[in-house]
Amino acid sequence: MFNDLSTPLALLKTRRSGKPRDLIGPGPSREQLRDMVAIAARTPDHGKLAPWRFVIVPDEHRPALALKLVEILRAEKPDASARDEEAAAQFVTQAPALVVVLSAPEHGHKVPVWEQELSAGAACMNLLHAAHAMGFAGGWLSGWAAYSDRVRDLFGTASQRIAGFVFIGTPARPLEERPRGDLDAIVTTWNPHYGP
């Protein structure tokens, strides 16, 4: 069942990503989005640095963001086709809600940047859990735009990086369970004789 919210474990066991292109309305209200972000910020954060930022892109501003993305694509990839431009515009206009999550580490702090970046990833995951707990689905994407400094500059500063574009909405159809990794292949039990 997609949104079995009967227990915390059921919630965790049933969370799945939704493809942003398949997420439709209704989407979360502005208040629900703020609540989701507040939950996302309750992530492990060594040093209490809050090394992440959340940028909610309101629906009414997404067409303008699409135009800026196409403009940046043309500047960075002059050989981009009309199809590439259309895909860039559609990227930020899919699903009812969009939150851009930035990794915002404090460089020079005793907490290593790597730990701060991991915290930003955990914030993205918490955002997906919050969306699921409220009866929605989310999809966490990156793509070329996440690695473009010009796109990053639309949302943050040079010391930050886009951790992901998180799209939130209602699945147009039931989400399918994807194959999961074999636990025996990814989990081991350490012992004193463990090693290569």
Written account of the structure:
With 196 residues, the chain is α+β, with helices and mostly antiparallel strands. It has a domain of 121 residues: NADH Oxidase, CATH 3.40.109.10. Helix content is 37%, strand content 16%. Strands 1, 2, 3, 4 and 5 form a 5-stranded antiparallel β-sheet that branches. Helix 2 packs across helix 5. The longest helix has 21 residues. The protein is globular and about 55 Å long.
List keywords for this structure.
single chain; 196 residues; alpha+beta; five-stranded antiparallel sheet; 7 helices; 37% helix
Q: What's this model, at a glance?
A:
It contains seven helices and five strands, in the order H-E-H-E-H-H-E-H-E-H-E-H. The chain is an alpha+beta fold and 196 residues long. The chain has a domain of 121 residues: 3-Layer(aba) Sandwich (NADH Oxidase), CATH 3.40.109.
Write the layout of secondary structure elements.
Layout: H1 8-14, E1 23-24, H2 30-40, E2 52-57, H3 62-76, H4 82-91, E3 97-103, H5 113-133, E4 137-141, H6 149-153, E5 161-171, H7 183-186
Antiparallel strand pairs: 1-5, 2-3, 3-5, 4-5
